[in-house]
Amino acid sequence: MTDTPTETPDTEEILEKVYEPKAVETKWRALWEEHGLGTADAMSEKPPFTMVIPPPNITGALHVGHALNTTIQDILARYKRMKGFSVLWLPGIDHAGIATQNVVERELAKEGIDRHALGRDAFIEKVWEWKERYGSTILNQQKRLGASCDWTRLRFTMDEGLSKAVREVFTKLYKEGLIYRGNYIVNWCPRCHTALSDIEVQFEETDGKLYYMVYPIVDSDGAKGGVKSLTVATTRPETMLGDTAVAVNPTDERYMDLIGKKIKLPLTGREIPIVADEHVSAEFGTGAVKITPAHDFNDFEIAGRHSLESINILDINAVLNENAHKYEGLDRYAGRKKVTEDLDALGLLEKVEPHKIMIGECYRCSTVVEPRLSRQWFVKVKPLAGPAIEAVENGSTAFVPKSWEKTYFEWMRNIRDWCISRQIWWGHRIPAWHCEECAHITLPDGEADPVLCDGCGSDKIAQDSDVLDTWFSSALWPFSTLGWPETTEDLAKYYPTSVLSTSFDIIFFWVARMMMMGLKFRGEVPFKEVYIHALIRDFEGKKMSKSKGNVIDPLIMMDEYGTDALRFTLAAFAAQGRDIKLAEERIAGYRNFCNKLWNLARFTLMNVDENSEEAGTETEGISLADKWILTKFADCLQTVEEALDAYQFDTAAKALYSFVWHELCDWYVELIKPDLWGDNGEERKAKTAGVLLVVLRDTLKLLHPIMPFITEEIYANLPVEKDGRGLHEEEFPVAIGAYPEETKELDSIMEVIGAIRNLRTENNVKPGASVESTCQIDGAAARDTLQRGAEYIERLARVSSITVTPTGERPLDSVSIVVSGGPEVFISLKGLIDVEAETKKIEGEIAKEIAERKVIEGKLSNSSFVDKAPEAVVAKVRARLMEINEKIEKLENGLERIRGMGK
RNA sequence: AGGCGCGUAGCUCAGUGGGAGAGCGCUUCCCUGACACGGAAGAGGUCGGCGGUUCGAAACCGCCCGCGCCUACCA
User: Fold this and answer.
1) Phi, psi of A259 (to 5 degrees)
2) Which positions of strand B lie within 7 Å of protein CB atoms?
3) What is the ipTM of this complex?
4) Distance (Å) from CA A66 to C1' B36?
5) Which of A10, A220, A665, A874 could form a disulfide with A228 if both were Cys (CB 3.0 to 4.6 A apart)?
């Protein structure tokens, strides 16, 4: 390939022809870590910028939602670092109690081991072993994305420090009466064998049935009209075994006389009362509701109001228990079948109708949850929610986009007590000790576990066997990770955090709870802003899920297209307030962009040397094209900066894309090639090479937060002063200069180039052939501009000669285009003109312009427009009218001449 | 049922009171000394519908239609 080794090295030796991300990414990941890129310095004088990563589930693997959120945070972290902040981006993972326990139990099951046989301590040891082996998977995947977290401050919710925070918070809340224990109905997962909080249940609309069951009334003779029975409607007939009442609305005339009477419950023979309750809707079903307090949330509340008994008919597996008598041992669905069959046989099943119902499923294992009565720990949330609501109302914490505040308020204002106990082993064990002798609950005072009962002094106390909801520890994340409850430098420097980036579905689980805990225990909001990013869906707008098989795996995408391409895609689609429909072609498109940038760098390296940077920094004597690109760069810089400050990642990405591809590559590089080849002297060559280098250097800085790998690699190859710094350590660039007048000039020259190119294509001129061109325009200044651009026009439009004249005779054998507000542009075709086509084209043009003129004239003849619209607008419209008139005149002249040629 | 959001070029989406835009796809031509993961030139839209406000509406307001999501105790 290289045959002239004595000359400047062949470009192939500098950079590959096509960008190959793999090696570059591996190299820079290692170097960044070596350089301590993300390591924060709490002693720094710089202002702090803090983010805590939403800790991913330790059992998880990176999905495209993580990839988006990690990318967003990394863009912010790198941007803020370059802007001079002391950035702490703190990474971590949560212990995911239920999910992790499930995973480890499944592993053990393969070896035929049950956790109960193993025992609690041994099992937990197994979980830690598992964590050591697999727990870093997702962290490594985040590193692969380029995440510039402070990996020296990595935290895990089960760390000693964080566990200390959990115990401190639990104890304090209990002592203040904000944590209590009680027997309530909760969501129960019959597969995970634990209680779940309200929001851990996901509702799915399902095709269910509404069963109408006949309940005989005891002593019906006394009732008016001799009513002998009552029909109730239910979606869960099997629960009738646990019915303890039937309720009707007190104002429902159909049933008024029955209130206070009794039902003889079929199949069991129990007698239960008919009660009146406001909650019952007379319109739905039959207006009479069976009440099963142990297995329905509403029924539980109604039971409370009427002091009804609760009969639990299901065990922890949702299998009917001894209270279900002869149905004992059937699971809930088999029980349903048998109960309905038996009722039907007795003639007590009136009818069955199809009915849509919302069924709750466990968010970890999708098993249908069972409302179940049990003793659990709860956080009394209302007193904590108040300040958390206020903090958002008064702007201490702001949501971006703001519309999410409504969701937050909605939930916070209707919040119910939070069930925090879980009947599993993996997690923070509840720091409460029960006394065998007096039933008193003893809490630790300090770090040591209590040994004696606070109440009676007995030493027969045992720690509660439940663990806390994982989200309980997550709620402390913004301050527990900084060292709380110790007083630390990190806490002083970096709390409250600056922004939390997360997805909307986590507002309830996490954001709201962090707000409550942060305010309660730090007296300050945990973050000043909450950026709610988009949800990623597949190309059809469906939620991605493994079962649908429509997931886009970010790891595969990184393999195939490069990490920068994936990151850029995610940024470019991260418009606020809208879901992202992601398709693989998008990523391929931005892979091409990476390659474009790469080749721009190759081109630059071929044309610059170690003196170029200095030459480019001094703007004296630079060319029209140089001034143009510096101006466009300044515009791009401003757009990117404003966009990133406002979390408009799509705007930033698109501005960069269009600047690099269309302005830098398509125009500037093409314009300056003759300069770089020395056609216009050595001085010009050196100057332009300088501007090219400096613009590329600063463009890399702008791009770096979004595409860290490729920009770092190119930057390392540029002959610019680095002082041993990598791009990630550089400051964000500032504009070198802006030249609006010259930029306008070159823009108008480009329009002429566009016009000539258009004429060439329309008239089938071979791409290689040169043509003669004439530009006619009145006004010396306009002609000067074109004259100054003559070289550019000749080169980029392949014109052999260009003549600039005032408006006048049409050149022989030519076709033309009128540039609005610019010249009439001709190219000569020497007898190759298709007169008919040309005539048609011009006629079409004229028709279009006349139509527009009509609209504009209409505006101007409307006195209220002229009077009321701002002057600038009216002036603009007037100028436009002149432009159009001029254009029409030229077109008409042209048409006349063309017609003459046809004869 | 309530809340939020969306409906702009074939597809994905910007635009949010004064001349309809981008990317991808498509058509035609071109391997010109950074790049075919490329270059040049094009075609393509009653801005969901109907009313209203305004000199002026894709944008603001109201209603309607369609779609999505979240919340909810109609069993």
Assistant:
1) -60, 130
2) 3-6, 11-15, 18-19, 22-25, 28-30, 32-42, 54-56, 67-75
3) 0.94
4) 35
5) A220
